């Protein structure tokens, strides 16, 4: 049980098993068992969420289980492939809010998936920045050293021992424990092209051009054509296992090193060994060569680095030898480089100066022995693999920057980006693309429909909001117009009031002025009157002039003061009225200004209010849009739940309908069973009646059985001597059958000997025919040569023409001209003709063999039937003999025996007499089981008994009848012999059997004809 999880309520636990099953346990009771549907994949982790739980499996799949409606059961939901490759999921985390993933974080790969076992082999290619490695963990990994990543991982069921990558980078060789596989590299997998029967191939490599590849099969190096996988040659010569193979740049030579201490250089034109150097006791592990092939370097078990050079007349000789102190496992030499790289058993890389002086620099690399060194095509990268499963890439720093720049930048082509894709994959992808396009179109249509619906709904809402805002705007405008009208009315009212106030003030001022003018005029008139009175009084009152002047001045002064006071009061009143007027004007202008400010402020407030309302409405629209999106998600989730509930209801309805149908069918079955019971009751009653009748008959038969038992005992006592005689005759028949079988075996042996003689005869005839053809071909060659020689002799006087004729004669008959090629064509034509003739003969013989086998089978069946007829006739004769010996009283028992024994009652009822020996009927020729009745035991088993006279004795048959039987047997033997002779005669008429399908004998060599000398 790898994982378990408690439900949020805490009353239920869900347990995952390593077989892919899920157990739901509540309390101590197993409620249900669920299947993940992943075909036995182990489940490693589990997490609960609100609607169910999720489990992670071996193959990178997450399976979701949702709760049912009753909240007690679970059902399997959808499956999600969480990772690109089928890796096991070890942990799952669920969001606390249980929402969908809104943003996927960008994860970066920290480390690539390395090998878990020792890295056995690596290789590189030219056209792509790829390197391939294989390991004991049964995996092949393709690395991109340009991007520093793993492009492909392929796992096999068997061990991998070697790997080689094609120079183009689209094919590779994998040496497995049971076979060598040629694989093509596709976009995401490796596909097997050919499997070659080479077991335990520890070394394989492609040629420099890629059209050939070499594979080590023990002590033999096999060369194959890459495009046809045809074995074009084998290099044999090593006495130990071949440990290293390298190709020359022109693919014309191959250098091998083996555990037998031999370094061989092979010429691939004729697959012959060209150069060699053998050092006994040293097991070479790796060999390297310069591009021109003149120098070789090898390392082995003697912990020494050896340098070989070609010497004229002496072959490959070791010229230098350096002690490495430790075991060097691998070496490699860059093309035109200045260093020789070597890998040691301690995991170090050594860089020896080239030409070799013994000096080196050592770099610590791995913790275990280095298994392989490989250089990239531009010699810029060094790939190192080790037994600890690590793969290191070193950058080679060349000290010649001009050559490095030319080699890396000037000559190198851009990396190839092409990949191989199978036609089936293309078709599948095309169909998948078509399906996805269809789904996209459907989704686009659905989304457009949904968008149209949303647009319609939003447009309807916008229209409603616009109408609402337009109505509010109209109401606000009307209200504003009302305020403006009220403002205008108030302005007119205040202007009217101001105007009326001004008029009233002017009228009051004019009235006061007129009143005061009237008063002044009245006072002036009165003053004039008083002046007249004064004049009168002056005249009368001269005496009192002083008193009157003083009194008059005092009175005038008093009146003046009084009137001045009154004028001042009037002026004050006028000033007050003017102030009141100015105040009224200011108040009216202030009221008007305040009303205008109030109206403007109210307009600004209404504008701010409605702008705030509009902003609030916009915010509300945005919030409603967000809520609308959330509601849409909820609606889609609810719609999905509704659809699932509908599907579940539909399934339940279908199940209910099926149950109703089942109930109806069961009710029909019940009615049928009731009817059947009634019928069976009737049948039982009939059977009971029948049983009652049979019991009565059985009682009668038991009464008759006593009499029959007595008769049977008498008949058995009489049949014993005759049974002995029948057993003797049976033994005789068995001996005859054994003799017939022996004759058949002898015939088969003779047939085999005869076929061998015929094969020998055919072989001799073919050899004679071949010799004749060879002689005729030789005579033709001699004749052609004589004719050409005669023509050549015609130019005896002209040396130049004679030389040309001799050269032509040499070209025609010297082994490389047209004569042997014509002869070879004739031989090939003759071989094809013979092969076609033999194929036609084999087809004819097969047809004849089938026909003759059918004839033989029919003949054997006919002979067997005749044998059966003879046996039946013999039994018939015995019965006739027995019936001739029996008496007449048996006829009274025959009717009772005939139903049991199957004997015809019409024949048995007739009395037998010596004059009519065949009157008695015979039993059936076969038993009820289909077996032939050939013995008394079989007769007894089949219920066949011959009725004899109770009073008659068991007398032996007469000698004349025995002699007749013997003569009959002799006649049958003669017939069998005649049939065997006829079969042999039919076999002799057949054509000779075809020869075996072995190889034809080699052609006879063409005899050499000596040239005549002058």
UniProtKB/TrEMBL annotation:
Coiled-coil annotated spans: 484-540, 962-989
Source species, domain of life: Eukaryota
InterPro entries assigned to the protein according to its UniProt record, in alphabetical order: CFA-57, WD40/YVTN_repeat-like_dom_sf, WD40_repeat_dom_sf, WD40_rpt
Residue stretches of each WD repeat: 235-276
A family per Pfam: WD40
Key words of the record: Coiled coil, WD repeat
Transmembrane residue ranges: none
Regions of compositional bias (Low complexity) in chain numbering: 904-917
Residue stretches of biased makeup (Pro residues): 1002-1014
Keyword flag Cytoplasm: no
Region (Disordered): 580-602, 882-938, 991-1014
Protein name, per record: WD repeat-containing protein 65
Organism for this UniProt entry: Apatococcus fuscideae
